């Protein structure tokens, strides 16, 4: 029987071929869908933590929508991994960044917040598409790299910055960061790991 990791490599190779034909959104969907299936078998998080991460992301989006005095005119993305929330995007002034932190601390089961918002105008739609493509490229490179299980990492891109989240050993984390740094288009890599060793 084929392992999820080997199957992921085959799908990534196929998606790279189709990606060259202008189907990059499809490639990312295939990679993301397969990685999600592989997560159930390979993710270091418990099933309960995975469900809590989804709930934390939904709660963050809901709080943002209900508080337009803080979030109006901002571009915000929320990603939770093992109950640690990463906030990326742009904020028009530093005071709103701090207010958003305070607002989100009320989310149940949230252990920590990494607020990586930058003070700038909201990114354009083409920049966001470019970031999605960059995330897909990093995921693809990790899937093709020997010695790395890509389902152990969550990857987020914002303005060319790549954020790596995961539960991993120091060796695996360093290896994944090196692969991400060598990916064309990556301006910087931010590692937000929780080490298992």
Radius of gyration: 17 Å
Mean pLDDT equals 85
CATH class bucket of the largest domain: Alpha Beta
Largest sheet composition = 4 strands, mixed
Give the termini distance in whole angstroms.
31 Å
Shape: globular
Strand content range: 15-25%
Helix content: 40-55%
| CATH architecture descriptor of the largest domain | 2-Layer Sandwich
Strand segment tally: 7
Number of helices: 7
Structural class: alpha/beta
Low-pLDDT runs of 5+ residues are: 12-29
List the secondary-structure elements in sequence, H or E.
HHHHEEHEEHEEHE
If you consult CATH, what is the topology of the largest domain? GMP Synthetase, Chain A, domain 3
Describe it for me?
By secondary structure, this protein is α/β, with parallel strands linked by helices. It has 7 helices and 7 strands, in the order H-H-H-H-E-E-H-E-E-H-E-E-H-E. A hairpin with a 2-residue loop joins strand 5 (153-158) and strand 6 (161-168). It starts with a helix and ends with a strand. The model is unreliable at 12-29 (pLDDT under 50).
Short description:
This protein is of the alpha/beta class and 197 residues long.
Topology:
Elements: H1 4-19, H2 24-42, H3 47-66, H4 68-71, E1 75-81, E2 84-91, H5 94-104, E3 112-115, E4 118-119, H6 125-144, E5 153-158, E6 161-168, H7 170-181, E7 188-195
Parallel strand pairs: 2-3, 2-4, 6-7
Antiparallel strand pairs: 1-2, 5-6
Key traits:
alpha/beta; three-stranded mixed beta sheet; 7 strands; 7 helices; 197 residues; Histidine-containing Protein, Chain: A
């Amino acid at each position: 029987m084929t392992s999820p990791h080997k199957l992921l490599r085959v799908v990534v190779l196929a998606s790279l071929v189709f990606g060259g034909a202008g189907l990059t959104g499809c490639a990312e969907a295939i990679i993301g869908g397969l990685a999600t299936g592989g997560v159930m078998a390979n993710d270091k998080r418990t099933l309960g933590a995975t469900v809590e991460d989804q709930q934390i992301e939904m709660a963050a989006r809901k709080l943002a929508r209900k508080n337009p005095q803080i979030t109006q005119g901002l571009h915000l993305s929320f990603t939770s991994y093992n109950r640690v929330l990463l906030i990326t995007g742009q904020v028009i002034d530093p005071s709103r960044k701090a207010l958003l932190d305070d607002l989100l601390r009320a989310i149940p089961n949230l252990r920590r917040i990494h607020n990586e918002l930058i003070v700038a105008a909201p990114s354009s739609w083409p920049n966001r598409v470019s970031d999605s493509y960059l995330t897909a490229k990093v995921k693809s490179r990790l899937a093709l790299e020997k010695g790395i299980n890509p389902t152990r990492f969550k990857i987020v891109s914002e303005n060319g910055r790549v954020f790596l989240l995961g539960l991993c050993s120091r060796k695996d984390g360093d290896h994944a960061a090196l692969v991400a740094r060598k990916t064309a288009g990556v301006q910087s890599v931010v590692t937000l790991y929780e080490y298992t060793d």
